[in-house]
Amino acid sequence: MEMKLLWDFKKEFQSLKMRIAIFTVSQMAVRITYYQAFHAKEGFNEQTFVIDISRLLPGRYYLELITDIAGMLVKHDVLDRDVIAFEIQATEEKKVFRAANASWGYYELPETICK
Questions:
Q1: Would the pTM count as exceeding 0.85?
Q2: Alpha-carbon gap, residue 15 to 37, rounded angstroms
Q3: What is the mean predicted confidence (pLDDT) over 21-48?
């Protein structure tokens, strides 16, 4: 999934970080990912983020975008909740023997290798 964001910053930030958290529509946390720090100049900025959702099981999800000032672990600003809602459809390539749920989880791991 590729997201292109356009922001209007009131001041310059030397080092911002983006965290993207994925939740089910029932607000169960599924995955969080972090991106390298980036520079944001005052005014309009465009940034593209790519997240691999290929192993998510069929179901309805949403993304929460969080910006952090790099180096400050406690300070963060939630841009929005339910910023991007999406649904993964069951397909022939993505056959699952069970529905995704809180008991089994929502993320398909790679095939187990036995040595």
A1: no
A2: 5
A3: 88
